[in-house]
Amino acid sequence: MDCNKLARTATKAGVMLLESGAETYRVEDTMRRICQAYGASVVDAYATPTMIIISFSIHEELYHNIKRTQIKSVNLSKIDKVNDLSRRITKESMSLEEFYIRLEKIDEEGVYPTKIMLLGAAICSFGFAFFFKGTLKDALCSLVLGVLLKSLMIFADKFDFNSFFKYLLGGAFTTLGAIVCSRLSLLDSIDTTIIATIMLLVPGLAITNAVRDTVSGDLVSGLARMAEAVIVAVAIALGSGLVFTLLGGY
Fold first, then answer.
1. Are 183 and 250 in contact (CB under 8 A)?
2. Cα angle at 23 between 19 and 25, to 5 degrees?
3. CATH 3.30.1300, the chain: domain bounds
4. Buried b (16+ CB within 10 A) or exposed e, 35-71
5. Res. 139 pLDDT band, cuts 50 70 90
6. Is the pLDDT of residue 71 over 70?
7. For residue 250, what is the enclosing H or E element?
8. What is the mean pLDDT of residues 187-214?
9. CA pair distance 26, 105, nearest whole angstrom
10. CA–centroid distance for 61 within its chain
11. What's the pTM value of the predicted model, to 2 decimals?
């Protein structure tokens, strides 16, 4: 067996999980399981939001790999599939080559179809409007703005916009759209419409994982994820506040 390929395979699985929004402990546990399933011992896995390290020994030879990472998006489907595959190899016979091929197929699936993401944005923004005690007019405006906002975020992702600028643009677009709807008398509460739509940008998973990592003792990952969530929140607030300032309120 190619031990260097085992190190690269375990690292690839970890990167796929981390870039899909998985928790630190899940990433490290999955990499350990993969290495141990193919006979490795003394396995050490370390993951942060920006780096993954795997180290293990086979026949008293030490192997390791380091990979730079970036958190790209939230893809719970990919997390589930990689998680399931890493546990299946401990129960059934599967060569390292076959495991790697299956891992590649999961990685090639990419994100959810655009239509599904837009539908999800529409449902969420529409529902949040009622959650914040808005009227039907507020909900309908939130639905339209939610779809347009998600389209803008998808466009920004295709061109690899800077994360801070992307969320600043999202906050500004949402506020501008709500102000336009208000001046056209298409809604009853501009505040409810803005909040319901901006909820699509709130980094809820990042905050949840930050708290979970911190409680689990992964302080570096916890602080990094919390810093990311704070930066996103600041960007959204700046974008929204900038539009209000330029337009002199509503």
1. yes
2. 120
3. 3-108
4. bebbebeebebbbbbeebbbbbbbeeeebebebebeb
5. very high
6. no
7. none
8. 88
9. 21
10. 36
11. 0.79
